[in-house]
Amino acid sequence: MPPEIAPFKQALTGLQPGSLGAFPCWRGTFQQRDVSLVLCGIGKVHAAAAAQLTVSELKPDAVFSCGSAGSLDDRLDIGDVVVGASTLQHDYGFVTPDAFIPFGLHLQRQGQAREYMRRFPADASLLSVANAIQHDAPPSSPRVVIGTILTGDQVIFSAEKRQALRQEFDALAVEMESAAIAQVCALYDIPFLSIRGISDHASEAIPLDTSRLDPNELAEFSSASLGKKLSLFAKTISYLAHHPSAFVMSVQARQHIKTASEHSAQITLRFIEQLGSEI
């Protein structure tokens, strides 16, 4: 999202706007390193498409997935930063009559045997820098934690789902892009790391501005399409899903995304400062 990339655009010097296929792209310099910013959009397909173009056209030394995420751990606060020791897709698997069974995938590299991967581990050298940042951070720095980040084409507004994801995968955060980018990077042996700021708690605390919704129209839609099966919260989300132009984030949610994005960028830029010969 644009708020997630804005702090990086402010930090780079000699910023040059451009495009990478269908994706907005900016190139600049930070700490004498050439840095490219690619705005991939939301979801795994956007992320994978942008990652493929990035790898093919820009030939990066390393790729970082930055921005916001929802927390799966009650110990995390808004603005904390999660560095992904590994990433995985939580919505990839088998649907049975009894349950959803998560599964991995077979990674096919040219000239190599297929490799089954349940999750994508972060590059070890990059992760060592993350560990140093975590332990040497000044008091004014955002709190940094290291653990698993989940990716799925779902926006989680459910405490029950949040708890299930936490228990199933022992993960700290959930978002919609990193594991897809990690998979592309794994195909080409490109070092990868996800650095995400916490913007919400993946619960029923709705982050949307519903003040502009017509209550009569909402009631009519809910009655006609959903009956009495769903809660008012779920009916509101369903209405917004069918009327995307009415989908507006609340002021608080926008501020939380801004804080999460700024902290993600702050840690990522500190990361770039501390990179030596790792990449």
Could you explain the architecture of this structure?
- Keywords: Amino-acid biosynthesis, Hydrolase, Methionine biosynthesis.
- It comes from Candidatus Moduliflexus flocculans.
- This is adenosylhomocysteine nucleosidase.
- The strands form four sheets. A five-stranded mixed beta barrel has the order 4-12-11-5-13, surrounded by five helices.
- The chain has two domains: 64-206 and 252-274, Nucleoside phosphorylase domain (Rossmann fold, 3-Layer(aba) Sandwich); 208-248, no CATH class.
- It is built from eight helices and 13 strands.
- The model has no long low-confidence stretch (mean pLDDT 90).
- It is of the alpha+beta class and 279 residues long.
- Strand 1 (13-20) and strand 2 (23-30) form a beta hairpin.
Give a quick precis of the structure.
By secondary structure, the protein is an alpha+beta fold.
**What is the overall number of helices?**
8
The CATH superfamily of the largest domain is identified as Nucleoside phosphorylase domain
What is the percent of helical residues? 25-40%
The major sheet is characterized as: 5 strands, mixed, barrel
- Helices and strands, in order, run as HEEEHEEEEEEEHEHEHEHHH
